[in-house]
Task: inverse folding
């Protein structure tokens, strides 16, 4: 006879039975149950196994502080490990199972660890597993990794699914004047009071029901109903099942709302959870207080839980946790628990460590046996069946008689939940009178109320809430009448600090952090070994690092360390609380920006047009760009070679829309360009384009592109695709912060123009057939580097520059984005007349390598303008960004790696990008250079490459280098040649 | 000296763990030391250890303002790798990795260095090529490195997102000798080993002023009294600028930024490798600790900060990156996130160098790289202090490299500290 | 989450902005001696406490702003346009509307 469901009482709905499965067994609970309540009602004592020793564990609490009842909920892809059964609402068809145990939690072979527990104290793994036992012989990491493999399998708790999470999550944003966290008596009172002062209030509660501690009281129904009624009338926005998991700078709070975790078959359109970012002007944290455990021998046995938890199970869920109930504590809060248990028909013994517990008439009248100056010394039974008592005083206990019992309810005192305010940087202070940490002052718009502030009595909590609301309103500039504050505390008889119970010299397995199996001996071992600062204690023993965040045990650990040190708790300090308050699903934090929505996808206006022409796309930054246009049966290699060859022999068209485009406008635009580009722009005529290179402040190449002069004050700048945003920001920074005197405005027009490169000897014929006036693109009207603004047939506005990346005679034509496909519909049939083609990035790459034109692969942020072979573009006659620092001595050395072309010595051989260039007699070490681009050159009929090598072409004229590529088991003898491998004099593009 | 061993663990199991003494002493500071290292983090402790071990020096103190290992030693994602390619960096980090491989034995403290392989995903031919150069450099300088194609990657790590990733994974560059270690153990292991060689490790001892005697440091004023020093080494990461300015030395090429780290609830083995990627402006790295927590991180919070508190936008960004690569993490819960202050430099590379003061040496500027660097950082810093000249591998880790124009910028990001994450 | 009161757009999350850098740096003339450029580009005071810095409202008005902020508490004391001219215009506009 142990835990059982009562036939009356509680907030459950007995008309709705709920079937669920526990470890494969069908069980039944009621609507309104938590999983823990339902398990308890079904008298399931052992529901989990501990982390290290695999000790049997039961339900220890009724909330987020749970460190025993960790279970796996759901199955398959929706398997959810490490769920605290105390916070999981029961629903029809819920499937839950034990974890970290084989074959099951009731009988677990891992429990053998417990037998060896004496050999496995805190930090034992730092002292062994390094090398072969017994003396750690050997070297390297092999032995450790062998051990580690076993340790890893034993560690962990639940097992997560490897399949993608099938659910989805949402993000939301909220604003309010006052955020109230926690809907207990203090929080609800604060919210109502703030709303009555005309403030916009948001109240969030992690529980499904509002009421907090009222839910666990036997006689609070009426007052709870009243509070809720007032709350409903107040206009406060209320969110239940919503945890404020962290407070952040400037009044921000992170909330997670559990939308469907309590529903059997949720609407598939609903997200599983929502992550809300709240911006609150004031925050009131009424997050309550959590009851502490006490360390004594076997204090982890199933059947032992906190006193308040026992009361909650009784009054909220109508589950009597036992029939022979012992309640043990050191403070007044156990008395009402004893009364409630006795009233429910249990045989109740109240142990109190204090000699004096005040007036106990009511207790005696209720039939409660009282033993003062008494505490539990040791618990017996795999699941609790009796306890041995200790009598005397804390610090001088004497073993006493044995007492049979099937439930032991503990109260070691109360810890206000100061986690959230600590996230902001507030330092909790030890309050010796109440044996707890408190944060008494407001901290940057955050204030505590109720038991979170160390106020113990319900009515005082309500008043504390109202007081906090007044203070918040005052801070928001409201005129409010002064409400009296509430002082910390509220016990009739002072609490007697009690953290551990043991008699002199008695061996004991007393747990401080139950989930991580950290015992009081571990704390003392840490002390002996000098891990005495709080953070060392925590890290060495893993105290407080478990999924409950040490909510029940941290203070005990601190107290035991303080005792060992002979100091007070404040002298030991406290650990820093880190968000989240309770663990939050990573999926919720990620929201919708997952899988293909991880980043925006940028498509050019020609995207669909390209696809209809058979383009295979590739990534270029966030863009999708055509990679190649394979004809039926063609491989990528065949396709790009054909595209490049066709372009060089006839004509090719290429979507270049993704290039960055910036309008640079204003009376001082010329001066501005002259400062940011290395080459002179002061005399660029209207109607001309110029290739320019810009450097960073430190003189390293930043980006390149062409800039077209459209009028006296209007330029059209292009950047590389990848650097478009960076260059714009850089120009804005220069104009707004460094050179405010320049009358220039820069505007991104990347999205406004669709661009096509028309390249090849037939390019002019194609273009002239498409423009409104054929002569507009004649050699005279549009010479090399010329720019015109004209129209295509049909009146499509168009700007064209005769510029070439391929090295052929070529044009770039830009039309307003929406006309992009129309432009292609004009150009492509004309190109087809010349047996021209579309080409993608691969062929573009081939042609630029043949010409020795640099891209991001060469300009990698470490390369100087001289390294890139473009030193002549750095004007000696003007100052520009980077002109001073580019001349630092190391950057001017002639033996720096310089841009070169690369031919395989055996023209049938190939090499890979990323191979190192080495001297033939030293194929090791850092190498002499590296390869940045490689392709088959249709023009030359063999493989070619671009790269950098120390000293450049001059240093390697008669020497063979080796392209060493050990990654791919390849080694190729190469010749170093000029990077301008095709048409070095540039006749074709000028022609 | 108490050796740690399986035998000792066994024996203590029989005797109630009574035989373990302090891992390191708690000495009162002396009035003077030959060498004072300021900063009881990994780098400072390692330096003290190698000064004693490699150079036979005595009379050394490490001053720590709080508790040892309380700074970035405890605020990192514990990844150890040597995939650096810039001259100097390459040799330095490779040496560090070699030291890691024997560190548990050297310190007689299990730092749990697990060579579980560092898998850097790539998503485009361009990214593969950039890795190829880096990993070829590693191979040709005696390190290990390989390229995995998609099929091999799928075999090794089947549950990455190969289906609907925004940036489809095409392969990975892998260093098998890389992995993770237990960060706290490294601090404690160095402390214990240094202590056994006679180094005084003095906690709760904050330097409040640097007393100069012309071009030398004469003494350090501390919260525990004045301490005279023959030579002084600074190894204080994010607080370097403050000490530097206490010594009246002006400004440094360093900015303090904060970097968040994340750990999930413990799980049974879910990921056996260290997996990293950088694409689409995101940057992400993840591994699973021996305890079972998924340990991961991403970018800096992007603004300068000395606060050890993170903010939500980066939490969100990092979780997005996590989900983008391991979509099974959706139901895994984040247990903690916290933040450390990084000493970011103008080129992402560190300083181990002499300073304008004759007997003052600087160890700083570790950006994201501090954890993996700690053994070599201590090794070369000790070498510098002992010999008063930089080893050739660290000659570029000097403050004047920016004046000279030495480029050891692994990312090519340029002189903007926040970009060197 | 830091919130920045953009003088053009109002109070916004910092994720709309990009951090620039130290606003107290005076970049020298383009042809200044290398030493001046070295100091401006590479050296930082790296203040722990109140500092002057730049942010750009990248996902907003794209204005560069000067922000006075505490690098420990993250408290912001003042925000104004980095460009003096824009600042003056904004000020005049506000006076006109008032």
Result:
């Amino acid at each position: 006879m142990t835990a059982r469901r009562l036939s009356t009482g509680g907030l459950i709905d007995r008309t709705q039975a709920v079937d669920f499965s526990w470890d494969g067994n069908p069980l039944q609970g009621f609507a309104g149950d938590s999983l823990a309540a339902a398990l308890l009602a079904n008298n399931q004592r052992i529901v989990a196994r501990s982390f290290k020793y695999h000790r049997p564990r039961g339900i220890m609490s009724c909330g987020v502080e749970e460190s025993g009842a960790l279970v796996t909920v759901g199955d398959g892809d929706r398997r959810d490990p490490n769920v605290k059964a105390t916070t999981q609402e029961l629903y029809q068809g819920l499937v839950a199972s034990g974890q970290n145990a084989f074959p099951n939690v009731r009988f677990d072979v891992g429990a053998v660890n417990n037998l060896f527990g004496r050999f496995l104290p805190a930090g034992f793994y730092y002292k062994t597993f390094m090398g072969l036992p017994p003396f750690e012989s050997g070297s390297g990491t092999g032995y450790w990794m062998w051990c580690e493999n076993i340790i890893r399998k034993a560690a962990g708790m639940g097992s997560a699914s490897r399949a993608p999470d099938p659910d989805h999550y949402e993000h939301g944003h909220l604003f309010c004047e006052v955020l109230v966290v926690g809907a207990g008596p203090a929080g609800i009172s604060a919210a109502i009071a703030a709303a009555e002062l005309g403030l916009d209030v948001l109240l969030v509660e992690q529980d499904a029901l509002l009421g907090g501690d009222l839910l666990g009281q036997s006689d609070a129904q009426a007052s709870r109903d009243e509070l809720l009624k007032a709350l409903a009338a107040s206009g406060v926005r209320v969110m239940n099942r919503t945890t404020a998991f962290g407070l952040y700078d400037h009044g921000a709070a992170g909330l997670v709302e559990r939308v469907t975790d309590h529903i059997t078959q949720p609407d598939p359109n609903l997200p599983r959870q929502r992550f809300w970012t709240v911006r609150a002007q004031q925050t009131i944290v009424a997050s309550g207080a959590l009851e502490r455990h006490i360390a004594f021998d076997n204090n982890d046995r199933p059947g032992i839980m906190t006193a308040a938890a026992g009361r909650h199970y009784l009054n909220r869920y109508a589950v009597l946790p036992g029939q022979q109930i012992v309640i043990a504590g050191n403070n007044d809060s156990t008395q009402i628990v004893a009364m409630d248990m006795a009233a429910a028909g249990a045989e109740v013994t109240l142990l109190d460590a204090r000699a004096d517990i005040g007036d106990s008439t009511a207790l005696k009248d209720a039939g409660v046996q009282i033993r003062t100056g008494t505490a539990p010394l040791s618990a017996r039974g795999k699941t609790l069946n009796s306890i041995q008592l200790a009598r005397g005083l804390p610090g001088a206990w004497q073993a006493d008689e044995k007492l049979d019992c099937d439930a032991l309810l503990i109260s070691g005192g109360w810890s206000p939940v100061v986690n959230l305010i600590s996230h902001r940087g507030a330092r909790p202070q030890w309050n010796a009178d109440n044996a707890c940490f408190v944060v008494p002052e407001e901290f940057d718009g955050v204030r505590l109320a109720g038991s979170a502030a160390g106020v113990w009595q319900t009515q005082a909590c309500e008043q504390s809430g109202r007081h906090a609301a007044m203070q918040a309103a005052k801070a928001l500039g409201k005129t409010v009448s002064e409400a009296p504050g509430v002082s910390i505390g509220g016990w009739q008889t002072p609490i007697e600090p009690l953290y551990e119970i043991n008699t002199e010299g008695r061996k004991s397995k007393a747990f401080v952090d139950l989930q991580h199996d950290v015992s009081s001996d571990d704390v003392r071992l840490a002390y002996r070994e000098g891990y005495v600062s709080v953070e060392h204690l925590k890290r060495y023993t893993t105290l407080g690092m478990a999924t409950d965040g040490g909510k029940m045990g941290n203070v005990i650990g601190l107290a035991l360390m303080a005792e060992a040190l002979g100091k007070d708790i404040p002298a030991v300090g406290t650990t820093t609380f880190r968000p989240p308050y309770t663990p939050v699903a990573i999926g919720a934090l990620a929201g919708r920006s997952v899988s293909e929505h991880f980043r925006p996808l940028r498509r050019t206006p020609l995207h669909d047009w390209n696809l209809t022409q058979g383009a295979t796309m590739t990534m270029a930054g966030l863009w999708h760009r055509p990679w190649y246009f394979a004809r039926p049966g063609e491989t990528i290699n065949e396709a790009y070679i054909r595209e490049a060859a066709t372009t060089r022999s006839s004509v090719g068209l290429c979507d270049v829309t993704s290039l960055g485009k910036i309008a640079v406008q204003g009376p001082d635009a010329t001066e501005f360009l002259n400062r940011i580009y290395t080459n002179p722009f002061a005399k660029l005529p209207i109607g001309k384009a110029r290739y320019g290179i810009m450097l960073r402040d430190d003189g390293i190449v930043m980006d390149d592109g062409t800039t077209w002069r459209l009028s006296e004050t209007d330029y059209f700048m292009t950047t590389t695709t990848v650097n478009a945003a960076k260059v714009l920001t850089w120009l804005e920074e220069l104009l707004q912060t460094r050179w405010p005197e320049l009358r220039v405005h820069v505007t991104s027009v990347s999205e406004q123009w669709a661009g096509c490169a028309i390249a090849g000897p037939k390019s002019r014929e194609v273009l002239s057939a498409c423009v409104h006036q054929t002569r507009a693109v004649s050699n005279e009207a549009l010479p090399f580097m010329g720019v015109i603004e004209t129209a295509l047939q049909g009146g499509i506005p168009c700007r064209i520059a005769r510029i070439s990346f391929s090295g052929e005679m070529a044009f770039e034509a830009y039309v307003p984005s929406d006309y992009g496909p129309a432009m292609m519909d004009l150009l492509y049939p004309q190109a087809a007349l010349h047996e021209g083609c579309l080409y993608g990035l691969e062929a573009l790459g081939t042609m630029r390598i043949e010409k020795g034109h640099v891209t991001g692969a060469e300009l990698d942020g470490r390369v100087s303008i001289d390294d890139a072979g473009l030193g002549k573009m750095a004007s000696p006659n003007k100052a520009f960004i980077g002109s001073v620092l580019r001349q630092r001595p190391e950057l001017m050395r002639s033996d720096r790696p310089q841009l070169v072309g690369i031919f395989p010595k055996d023209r049938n051989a190939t090499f890979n990008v990323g191979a190192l260039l080495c001297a033939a007699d030293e194929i090791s070490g850092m190498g002499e250079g590296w390869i940045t681009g490689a392709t088959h050159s249709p023009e030359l009929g063999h493989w070619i490459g671009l790269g950098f090598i120390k000293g450049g072409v001059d240093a390697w004229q008669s020497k063979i280098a080796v392209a060493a590529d050990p990654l791919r088991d390849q080694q190729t003898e190469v010749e170093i040649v000029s990077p301008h491998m095709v048409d070095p004099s540039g006749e074709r593009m000028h022609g | 000296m108490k050796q740690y061993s399986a035998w000792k663990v066994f024996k203590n199991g029989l005797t109630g763990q009574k035989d373990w003494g302090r891992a390191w002493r708690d000495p009162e500071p002396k009035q003077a030391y030959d060498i004072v290292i300021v900063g009881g983090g990994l780098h400072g402790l390692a330096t003290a250890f190698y000064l004693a071990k490699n150079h036979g020096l005595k009379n050394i103190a490490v001053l720590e303002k709080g508790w040892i290992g309380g700074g970035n030693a405890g605020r990192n994602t514990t990844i150890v790798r040597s995939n650096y390619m810039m001259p100097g960096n390459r040799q330095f980090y490779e040496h560090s990795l070699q030291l890691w491989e024997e560190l548990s034995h050297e310190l007689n403290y299990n730092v749990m260095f697990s060579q579980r392989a560092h898998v850097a995903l790539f998503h485009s031919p361009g990214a593969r090529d950039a890795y190829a150069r880096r990993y070829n450099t590693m191979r040709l300088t005696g390190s290990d490195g390989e390229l995995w194609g998609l099929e091999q990657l799928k075999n090794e790590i089947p549950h990455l997102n190969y289906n609907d990733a925004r940036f489809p994974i095409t392969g990975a560059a892998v260093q098998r000798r890389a992995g993770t270690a237990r960060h706290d153990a490294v601090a404690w292991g160095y402390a214990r080993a240094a202590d056994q060689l006679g180094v005084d490790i003095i906690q709760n001892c904050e330097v409040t002023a640097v007393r100069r005697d012309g071009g030398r440091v004469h003494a350090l004023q501390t919260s525990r009294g004045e301490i005279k020093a023959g030579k002084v080494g600074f190894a204080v990461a994010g607080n370097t600028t403050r000490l530097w300015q206490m010594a009246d030395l002006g400004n440094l090429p360093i900015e303090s930024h904060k970097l968040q780290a994340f750990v999930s609830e413990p799980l049974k083995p879910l990921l056996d490798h260290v997996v990293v990627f950088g694409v689409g402006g995101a940057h992400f790295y993840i591994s699973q600790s021996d305890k079972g927590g998924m340990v991961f991180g991403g970018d800096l919070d992007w603004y300068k900060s000395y606060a050890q508190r993170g903010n939500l936008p980066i939490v969100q960004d990092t979780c997005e990156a996590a989900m983008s690569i391991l979509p099974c993490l959706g139901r895994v819960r984040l247990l903690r996130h916290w933040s450390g202050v990084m000493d970011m430099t103008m080129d992402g590379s560190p300083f181990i160098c002499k300073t304008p003061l004759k007997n003052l040496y600087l160890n700083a500027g570790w950006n994201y790289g501090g954890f993996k660097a700690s053994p070599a950082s201590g090794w070369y810093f000790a070498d510098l202090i002992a010999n008063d000249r930089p080893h050739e591998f660290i000659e570029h880790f000097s403050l004047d490299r920016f004046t000279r124009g030495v480029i050891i910028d692994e990312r090519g990001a340029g002189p903007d500290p926040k970009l060197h994450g | 989450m830091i919130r920045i009161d953009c003088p053009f757009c109002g109070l916004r999350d910092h994720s709309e902005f990009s951090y620039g850098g130290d606003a107290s740096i005076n970049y020298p003339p383009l042809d200044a001696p290398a030493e001046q450029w070295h100091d401006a580009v590479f050296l930082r005071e790296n203040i722990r406490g109140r500092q002057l810095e730049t942010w750009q409202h990248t996902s907003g008005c794209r204005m560069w702003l000067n922000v006075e902020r505490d690098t420990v508490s993250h408290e912001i004391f003042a925000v104004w346009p980095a460009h003096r001219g824009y600042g003056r215009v904004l000020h005049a506009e506000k006076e006109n509307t008032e």
